[in-house]
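Q: What would this chain look like folded?
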Amino acid sequence: MPTCPSVAEIGALVAHLRQSLGDNTAPRSALRSVVNLARNGEADTALDELCLVIDCFAITLTEEQFERIGRLAEHFESDAPEETRLARLVI
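A: My prediction, written as structure tokens:
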């Protein structure tokens, strides 16, 4: 079965975020659950969870990462990036 492009996009975004965290295991584990949600057909929920994890752990984002989250939010008609005020975490 082919992977939905949004699932691949979430997976790639999470991979970049996890790499930037180094050995900080708590957020890395939380991000792993985001990927599992996406792979299990819950990509819209995964996006919401991703925003919550980024907010909870104050994970900084590049402008490009923030824009990718914005595109996913548009695709899923989600307001999670605004609700969690992710723009404040862009470096």
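The mean pLDDT is 92.
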